Amino acid sequence: MEQKEKLLFLGCEMNAAGTEKSFLAFLSALDRERYDIELLLARAGGDLYHLLPKDIKVTEMPVGGEMFTLSGSNAASVIFRLFVRKNPLRLFEIFPYFVRMKLTPSKRSLIAMELWVHMMKKMPDHPGEYDAAIAYWGDKTMFYMVDKVKAKKKITWLHFDYANPPRSDQTYLPYFEACDGVVTVSDAVDHALKKKLPSIAHKCVMIENLIDRDSLYAMAKTAPTYTDGYTGTRIVSVMRICHQKGFDFIPEILGQLVKNGRELRWYIVGEGTEADVAYLTSECERLGVADRLVLLGTTPNPYGYLKDADLFVLPSRHEGKPISVEEAKAFAKPIVVGHYLSADEQLLSGELGLIAESDPTSLTEAIDQLVSSPDRRDELSRRLADYNRTTAVKSECEMAKFYDIMRKTSEKK
Fold this sequence. Notes:
Helix content is 42%, strand content 17%. The protein has helices spanning 18-29, 75-84, 90-103, 108-120, 140-148, 169-178, 187-196, 213-221, 250-259, 274-286, 303-307, 323-330, 343-346, 360-371, 374-390, 395-412; strands at 5-11, 35-41, 57-60, 129-135, 150-158, 181-184, 204-206, 233-238, 264-269, 293-297, 311-314, 335-338, 354-356. Strands 3-2-1-4-5-6-7 form a 7-stranded parallel beta sheet, with helices on both faces.
């Protein structure tokens, strides 16, 4: 019997988010006869952690895992605790980055990532050697994989629009070049990356995120759902409450829809920072629509809310190829999205849902079309149901692409 290859997947934590959901679907389809699988997490936790298959080895970074969950609010304290407290001279390394962020606030996120990479290099190497290492979360896990993991081949995933928000080619390109393969999750994401970084085009392979419709339907049967007895139109968004997702558009959209005489409530399944949630609720109160917004928090099983909603909305400014939209399609929900990179690809240029510009006025107009017209919503639901019946689950095809990457990179060694 041929010896199995040792695979190491690298992730941050198992939160109830799109990357984690697609990873679970990918794991379930991965051939156990070929591979011994280990998952290295920055933090061994999260709402979906209990769903990890029992036959894989899960380990947690013993040192520095907090680095992968840095935010603007905790970056200084985490870096101080992990590095400066142990070696006060590190302040001289860190100080110039903070000065640059202060002087050029428009480049704050780019400089912060440079600082992250600089400090990551201080972390210890991961022990062991693998046939392949796979940075499924991409981004920070790619940086760590390239610098800290010993493997015969290295593959990274790209789940987002590389150019939006802007990223530093100087930071990212050397790491992409060090990988044997770069997996993109949609044609639009693939084309955008190749256009921005043509020197790595030959490394790129598009592998769509997998979802298991039957599993979603089964989970929906035991999921929590609405208990408020509301009889108007229910809009649901499954998303983080953050700038990328366009959460700040919602108060203005709700205000205009109410002025238009629409009877609706907007439910959000997801969480955000204290500041963003406070802004959202206070703006709704200021505009007199606080009773039209319901924050449901996060849950590993949002499918009852999705199944029982009248309309799904994702007002994002930018995305790669969001899993939540694929899940809404699986439940044949009428959909409105902002015009992010893969929106046309996901909704077949508007045949399966409405695509608005990512601004409050355009989103309001699109949502109003569907809230005011049950017949239009029914038409979209029928199209989506037909699409689901005629579109086979692509797991075998997509996994074949991954196996091909593995084979080709092995042949090059």
